[in-house]
Amino acid sequence: MAIHLHKNDLPDNISFGKSVAVDTETQGLSLVRDKLCLVQLSAGDGDAHIVQMDRNAYDCPNLKALMSDPDVEKIFHYARFDIGMLKRDLGVEVTPVYCTKIASALVRTYTDGHGLKNLCKELLNVDLSKQQQSSDWASESLSQAQLSYAASDVLYLHQLQRILTARLMREDRLDMAKACFEFLRTRADLDMAGWAEVDIFSHSFR
C-alpha cells in the first residue's frame, strides 16, 4: 500500500478509471460550522491519494472535475454527509454515487451494524482501527497515523461494493438501491437547508 499526499489539489493527468472510492475528513460533523480538510481517494488498487485542502480557497480544479465527472462512479460510505460537504465547500454536484452504507442497510437486514468497521470485519475479515477518528484534521502537519487512518476509509470500498452489489442482485433490490443513491443529492440539500434532523416523509411530521 502506498499513500500519496497532495497539497490543495490532485496532480494533473491522474486517472482513477471508471470508479473511485472517496471519503472526507472535516473539522467536525456539522455542515454549517465545520470545514472540509481532506479528501481521500482510491482506484481500488491498494493505493490511496489524500488531498490536503486549502481551507481558505478550495482552489482544486482537478479534484472538482473528477467529483463532477458523470463517467466516473464515486463510491462512498455514508455518502449523504460527504457529498453535502463537497457541494458546500467545492461547489460541485457529485455524481454518479454509490453508497456502501445504504447498500448494506438494504441487504444486511439481520444487523443494525452498518458502519465501515462492521462491514470490513464481516465481509472482508479486515479489522479497521478507528483510533484516529477524532483527530485534528485541520492541522498543517498530519501524522503517519492520521494518514493511515484516512487512507483506510477508501482502500476497501471497491471490494465492499462488489460484495454488496452481488447481494443486492440476489435480493432483487439493486434498482431500489440505485434510486436511493440518486436521491442522496436531494437528501444532502435538505441537510444543508436545515432539515437534517427532520424526516419530512414521516406521518408525524404534519
Textual characterization of the structure:
The protein is of the alpha/beta class. It has a single domain, classed as Nucleotidyltransferase, domain 5 (2-Layer Sandwich). It is built from seven helices and six strands; from the N terminus they run E-E-E-E-H-E-H-E-H-H-H-H-H. It has a six-stranded mixed β-sheet, sandwiched between helices. Helix 3 runs parallel beside helix 6. The longest helix has 22 residues. The N and C termini lie far apart (52 Å). The model has no long low-confidence stretch (mean pLDDT 94).
Work out the helix count.
7
Over the alpha carbons, how many angstroms does the gyration radius reach? 17 Å
CATH class: Alpha Beta
Spell the H/E element sequence.
EEEEHEHEHHHHH
- Give a quick account of the main beta sheet: strands, pairing sense, barrel closure: 6 strands, mixed
| Order of the strands making up the biggest sheet | 1-4-3-2-5-6
Q: Any idea what the shape is?
A: globular
Low-pLDDT segments, ≥5 res: none
Total domains, how many?
Answer: 1
What is the CATH homology-level superfamily?
Ribonuclease H-like superfamily/Ribonuclease H
- End-to-end distance, in Å? 52 Å
Short overview:
With 206 residues, the chain is of the alpha/beta class.
Can you give keywords for this protein?
206 residues; alpha/beta; Nucleotidyltransferase, domain 5; six-stranded mixed beta sheet
Topology:
Blueprint: E1 3-7, E2 19-26, E3 36-42, E4 48-52, H1 61-67, E5 73-76, H2 79-90, E6 97-99, H3 100-107, H4 116-124, H5 144-155, H6 157-170, H7 174-195
Helix pairs in contact: 2-7, 3-6
